[in-house]
Structure formats: C-alpha cells, structure tokens
Amino acid sequence: MLRLLLMRHAKAERSQPGEGDVSRRLTERGRADAATVGAYLQAHGLAPDAAAVSPAARTRETWDLVAQALANAPQATWDDRLYDATPGDILKVIQRTPATAGTLLVIGHNPGLHALVVGLIASGTRAARQRLAEGMPTSTLAAIDFTDQSWAELKPLSGRLERFVTARGQPED
C-alpha cells in the first residue's frame, strides 16, 4: 500500500509591494497551524518517508515546522514544478517518488493541490469527501491510500481518501 499526504501550505502573509509571491512568509497563525499538523502526523502514525515541497518561502517554512514535530523527518526535496502547479504537474512529481518510500508528503498550493485530491480519489469516508467538496483551506492535510500500484503507475480515480483534516478542525479518531 502507498499513502500520499497532500498538504496545502499554512496561512501566509499578503504580498508586499515589490515583493514576489514566492517570497511570502507564514503568519503567526500559519506557524502555529503548521506545527499542529506536524504533531497530528506524528501522533497518528502518518509520518512520511519522503517529502516533496514547493520552493516558495511559505511552503518551505510549513515543511520546517511540520518536520520539527516528527520523530524522524525525512530530508525534503524542493521541487520547482510544485510552485503554481497544475494537478498534472503535481502528479508527475509524485510519480517520480522512489519505490522505497511508502508514504509521501507533498506540500504545495491551491488550486492545483485541491484539484489533484479530487481527481485522485475514487472512494473514502462520506465525512472526508464532504469536507473536501467544501475546498482545501490553508494547513489542510489529505491522506489518500492506494493499493496494488507503484508511484510511477499512480493514476486518477484510484485512491481512497482516508483523512481530510485541517489544523483548525481535526476530527476525532
């Protein structure tokens, strides 16, 4: 079984005049939320074996805070293809994941990330699918499980949405 964890970056500051979007940093709330999601991953046995992160400042900072909460955080890969990515771009990054990784965490941006989650799942709990239909706010984590596939073979409508949680509204387990 493969587990894909897709996370939208935590809440970021607005762009300042003359500053590019890629330079936006996390707000205080965003930093707290990223740490909360990291603690959730650790507490629920969802720690990744590999991590692919957009090179934007807000995604890198999100990863740093998530990683601090993990007992054995993997070395992240900064992938330029994840910034301003389409669902297809993100899927291509995922498909290049080494076979040794059973759980991959991708930290990226909307709208591509949300569209990819929607496009990958064929089933899941009703509650998780309902929350997904409402959107993917900052600091949201989607956990999708795949059976009988390798990362390279991953295709749309082949996963099961196991969890869909936000730092502000985690369901009880």
Q: What is the radius of gyration computed over CA atoms, rounded to a whole number of angstroms?
A: 15 Å
By secondary-structure content and strand pairing, the structural class works out as: alpha/beta
CATH topology tier name = Rossmann fold
Low-confidence stretches: none
Query: How large is the count of helical segments?
Result: 5
Distance between the termini: 21 Å
Q: Please summarize the sheet with the most strands.
A: 7 strands, mixed
What is the average per-residue confidence, as pLDDT, rounded to a whole number? 94
The SSE order reads: EHEHEHEHEHEE
Based on the structure given, which CATH architecture is correct? 3-Layer(aba) Sandwich
Apparent shape:
globular
Strand content: 15-25%
Strand order of the largest sheet: 3-2-4-1-6-7-5
